[in-house]
Design goal:
The chain is of the alpha/beta class. The chain contains five helices and four strands. β3, α3 and β4 form a beta-alpha-beta unit.
Amino acid sequence: MTAPDQPVGVVLVSHSREVAESVARLAAGLAGGGTTAPVAPAGGTEDGGLGTSSELISAAAASVDRGSGVAVLVDLGSAVLTVKALLAEGDELPDGTRLVDAPFVEGAVAAVVSASAGADLDAVVAAASEAYAYRKE
């Protein structure tokens, strides 16, 4: 399953296509020069509405999977339930896919930056999760 020379992929699940796409662009832009880890937005529904889509999430995860794992960050509660259901099914997401408990924007930036630097899945998950501790005062 592990492909040590390949980066961890990152999927950003939002109820809004525009939010997911914008956060993906921000995270990739802040990852700096060089090779950026694969990041894919999975926002909204197939028809462009607000919500989450199992099909869009599965497709996004497949598109960023390079064999080193996929970190999935979500914005709101029902997105968590959708990803958990996909993980429970066992064959809808690539092997090594993990749901990350992290703030959406800060966690996405931390995940993409660390994955782009060559961190393994555990380190990417830890970096994103640690974003809860970022102080803004």
